[in-house]
Design goal:
The protein has 522 residues and is mainly alpha-helical. It has four domains: 229 residues, no CATH class; 33 residues; 200 residues, 3-Layer(aba) Sandwich (Rossmann fold); 45 residues, no CATH class. Helix content is 65%, strand content 6%. It is built from 24 helices and five strands. Helix 3 runs parallel beside helix 10 and helix 6 runs antiparallel to helix 10. The longest helix has 40 residues. It is elongated. It starts with a helix and ends with a helix. Keywords: Repeat. It holds the Pfam family Goodbye.
């Protein structure tokens, strides 16, 4: 929907996305909207506006000047109440009138939301019909029979319009959209004719008006019959059910195709046989004694620079037990949150682990990176499936060079890739020297790929020699950094543990200070 319709029908039931109800990314001038719309529908609606203005003697543009802030059905009805409550007869009929108008206006709102873009004029169908309803009520001028006429008319129209609900919540075809434009056009025509009669005071008796409605040549009768025909249940049901079945079949085919794609990717992942890094990640998260543990790094200037620079690398090193893996898990969670709204951004991570032989070798790292990165982009997953097919659909193990080649291809797909590697020192030493360090050198040195690399480890000589002169940032996770997390944990424990709560505040501070000094950053 565009303009008025987008805000006007926000309270209406959700409409399934279709080519006709996707919001525009920018404001479009009426002249361009007309170019986008169907000429037949534009002429149909233009004619409806002209007929309404001729019958009612009301210029819609002039009458709408005070209408801009009326954005919902309830707001419109409230405005009508405020303007009409000074009239005695309205006070008698107002509640009934509101109850009669509301269901019709609700249906109009939904229908206009779907049909509006086919018309594409500055005057969306919903806005015109709503304004016409308000002006019709204004024309009643505190005459009892006129309010009754409006109630009777809208009860009849609701019976017709309510049929439209059967297909509104499904994607709308061009032919059905055209039918909706016709429905709204005839609705406006009817309101214009009745406004003309009410303003003239031609029928101030409800029974006489009802009799006139069914005279063979009466213009209102003809218009109501046309509205009945346009919304005839049998016709709309056939079209709607046919369209719904087609849509359901399309959805089922898409699900089957997606299931086949997922099954094929599962075979690729099984073939890579990479260990699950989430096991280590979840274990690290479970060690978080406090929710705020490690959050300090997200506000560190060096870390912020690493995240924002186009191509960056950071090495975090610290002594054993300094909480590097727990800190890594905090960083990884933050990266996933940061990348979530971005179109071409991926996160991959790996925890080397001396307790798990499968997580100490380079092949496991490569397989894990390939699996994770291919799961975050259809283009990347296509490359993995191609790689799988080249190896006899998984009947041959890939070589390390071929895995690296595929990794480079996948990295080229993304605008940004964050790679987090924890505990480089827990990768087997000969694996580090032969395979890991060459990979790290390319990742931190080549500007061909938009990579942000973060690695943690103990400060081992060989790791220092590989990274110190190449990475853009280095952080020593010494006592000053880890001190914050230890202090937070101790403060919480001393405050919440039953035994410590009984101690004097001064004694608790002494205990905390003693433990902090003895922790030595661990």
């Amino acid at each position: 929907m565009t303009g008025f319709a987008a805000g006007f029908f926000s309270s209406a039931p959700t409409i399934v996305s279709s080519p006709y109800n996707k919001p525009s990314s920018r404001t479009i001038r009426p002249s361009k909207l007309i170019q986008m719309a169907d000429t037949q529908f534009v002429e149909m609606w233009k004619t409806a506006i002209e007929h309404y203005e001729a019958d009612s003697k009301i210029n819609i543009a002039d009458a709408s000047r005070d209408f801009a802030d009326i954005l919902t059905v309830d707001t419109l009805l409230d405005v009508i109440d405020d303007e009409q409550k000074k009239f005695k007869e309205y006070r008698r009929h107002g509640e009934k009138l509101r109850k009669t108008l509301k269901p019709v206006l609700d249906v109009v709102g939904i229908v206009a939301g779907v049909a509006g873009e086919a018309v594409g004029t500055a005057w969306e169908p919903g806005k015109a019909v709503f304004l016409a309803v308000k002006l019709l009520v204004n024309a009643a001028r505190d005459v009892n029979s006129r309010y009754e006429i409006i109630v009777d008319l809208f009860e009849r129209m609701h019976n017709f319009l309510d049929r439209c609900h059967i297909y509104i919540n499904n994607p709308i075809s061009k032919s059905l959209q055209g039918r909706l434009v016709e429905v709204l056009a005839h609705l406006l025509l009817i309101i214009g004719l009745v406004t003309k009669i009410v303003k003239k005071g031609k029928f101030n008796d409800l029974e006489l008006f009802a009799q006139t409605l069914f005279q063979k040549d009466d213009s209102i009768t003809n218009a109501l019959q046309k509205l009945d025909l346009l919304t005839r249940e049998e016709s709309l049901t056939v079209q709607a059910e046919t369209h719904l079945v087609s849509h359901e079949i399309s959805q089922k085919v898409s699900k089957i195709e997606q299931g086949q794609v997922d099954a094929e990717l599962d075979k690729c992942y099984d073939w890579l046989a990479a260990p699950d890094p989430w096991v280590n990640h979840n274990a690290a998260q479970e060690k978080l004694y406090e929710e705020q543990t490690g959050q300090w790094i997200l506000h560190d200037l060096q870390f912020a620079a690493w995240m924002q620079e186009d191509h960056s690398s950071i090495w975090l090193h610290g002594i054993p037990g300094s909480g590097k893996s727990v800190l890594c898990s905090t960083i990884i969670n933050a990266l996933f949150q940061d990348c979530k709204p971005k179109k071409s951004c991926a996160v991959a991570f790996f925890y080397f682990d001396f307790k798990d032989p499968s997580k100490q070798i380079f092949r496991s790292l490569l397989g894990s990176l390939l699996g994770q990165l291919s799961s975050q982009s259809s283009g990347a997953s296509s490359l993995l499936k191609k790689f799988y097919a080249m190896h006899d659909s998984g009947h041959r193990q890939p070589s390390l060079p071929s895995m690296l080649d595929t990794l480079w291809d996948i990295l080229m797909i993304y605008d940004q890739v964050y790679i987090v590697l924890d505990a480089l020192d827990e990768c087997l030493e000969h694996e580090r020297q032969r395979h890991l360090f060459p990979l790290l050198t390319i990742l931190v040195s080549s500007d061909k790929y938009h990579i942000h690399l973060l690695a943690t480890s103990r400060n081992e000589l060989d790791i220092d020699g590989c990274l110190r002169t190449r990475v853009t940032h280095i952080m020593n996770l010494g006592e000053s950094f880890i001190h914050k997390d230890i202090e937070l944990h101790l403060a919480t424990m001393l405050q919440n543990e039953t035994f410590f709560c009984t101690l004097q505040h001064k004694l608790r501070d002494e205990i905390k200070d003693t433990l902090l000094k003895g922790a030595n950053g661990m």
